[in-house]
Amino acid sequence: MLALSWPYRWGCARLLALQGALMATTLGALGLSGVGIDVVLFHAHVANRPAAYPFGFRPPASWSPLAEVAFIAGLILLLAVVRGLLNYVYAVESGKLIHEQIVVELRARVYDKLQRLSFRFFDAQTTGAIINRVTSDVQSVRAFVDGVIIQLVILVLSLVCYLVYMLRIDAGVTFACLATTPVLWIITVVFSRLVRPAYDRTRELVDRVVLTLAENIQGVHVVKGFGREDQEIAKFGSTLQAVEDQQQQIFWKVSLFTPAIGLLTQLNVVILLAYGGWLVTEERLALGTGLVVFAGLLTQFATQVANLTNITNSIQQSLSGAQRVFAVLDAPIEIQSPPGAVRMPKAEGMVRFEHVSFAYDSTAPVLRDVSFAVEPGRCVAILGATGAGKSTLLSLIARFYDPTAGRVLLDGHDLRSLNVDDLRHNIGLVFQESFLFSNSIAANIAYGQPTATRSQIERAAQIACAHEFVSGLSEGYDTVLGEWGMNLSGGQRQRLAIARAILLDPALLLLDDPAASIDPHTEQEILEAMHRAMQGRTTFVVAHRLSTLRHADLVIVLEQGRIVQVGTHEELLELPGHYRTAATIQGIDLGLRTPSKLALQ
Ligand SMILES: Nc1ncnc2c1ncn2[C@@H]1O[C@H](COP(=O)(O)OP(=O)(O)O)[C@@H](O)[C@H]1O
Ligand SMILES: [Mg+2]
User: Fold this and answer.
1) Is the dihedral of CA 543, 546, 550, 551 positive or negative?
2) Which of 122, 392, 578 most suits a substitution to test ligand 1, by most atoms within 8 Å of the C-beta?
């Protein structure tokens, strides 16, 4: 936390200097009013000691009492003006430092880090938690610098100043008045222990609110389709209620703490009046520069101590948020290029799995001892039931995760030794559901290569069978898509995704069942787009359709993370097993059509 505040040390130092000057003016004004009272008392012959001016100053003997009082009043006024100016400068400076610099820069840093983090990090977090980290938790760090570090230094500095000043006036009175301080300390410590867990819990609850909101908006079709609006409203209401209940608990605690501190400081004033008043009547303490100034100091002291409540509260509040920001900033980046990484601007496309096993967490492995090799330019089809590990296998090729055991090689290099950016530039990806940004169609196709020219974009779209429908739109390639590409059909979105992958001209193409959620009419177009896209690249395609499987040079059948069958379409049709079953289900009458005939179709 302190390390994070370090870049802002000069800004903070300036603020502190300003605070020091502000304090000097306060103390100066207080001291001068004390002097004023003593001057009046002396001239009114109530007191028989002349007023003690600071710095050994003596007013010229020619000054009338009125001139002397006017002089002091003038000085106090001057200090008030200076104080006003300083307060203004302080407000401007602190606003600049805290709101402009710290918050903005920290958000940028968290966002930057989020882009680099591996999938494992995102697997472990909900969307709500991640959004909260970039938005509200970052504010906690600001609150820490603003409400804790600066306030704490001011507190310590001013307490020391007031204490020294008080001791100089009268040590006995000082000690008598501050006898309650240890009790204060104990209360503060107990309070912090009480509220910290409560603030942590609040943050989790707020994450839930954001997550509920995000899911509700993303799943608006499901919500409306199933007529669940009322339940959704109730669900959101209950998450809000949970936050409110939690806040109330904290509020109760804070509400008890503040008056307790206030009571203790009032006790101090009572002690002063009794003990200090007696000293004044005994003429052992001046009324103005002694008792009045002391009372003023004690009030200031009490204000600062009361500030302790706010600071303790802020520490707990901001630490629990800041901790979550640091969890992001300090999270290890699992997938990154090793030092001296192998550069690979253009891969050949030879892929090898050597005894690869993989698990997302400590539970059952998702891939077990997977080995195979693929020559450049070949097409591999992966078949298997839902949850068999097909998508996982593809994500290992793109190095979204590292294998738990064994290794994945591209052109003979272990993926872990390659430059990650180079690796990803060699890979074109199309998922089951494609994410499109709310930007123009051209920009979406060129996402992986923003420098692409319009003719390159159009060529990619042509290969992906997307050119025709894009040209049909009134604004063509400049049509801006709605959020998540909502104003396109599933088939159109997938074709844009294929164009996006082709534009990179990747050596490897990973197609994770792009036709899965497409209606049979458009499916044919997707399949055609896929087959054209595969030309000249090593392709891994998760597919269930025989039409795709037939094109493959190699078919891998996965079952619970293991390769149970591997071979060409023809070979596998000969063997009993998953593949032949799947083929039969798709209406191929093996008795009537021979495999070789099938391959010709
Ligand atoms: N990010 C993840 N974290 C934890 N488990 C996962 C994750 N993704 C997939 N799994 C699990 O791994 C198994 C294989 O998933 P996946 O590779 O997506 O299967 P397929 O694509 O063949 O349907 C499933 O049991 C699934 O629940
Ligand atoms: Mg899958």
Assistant:
1) negative
2) 392
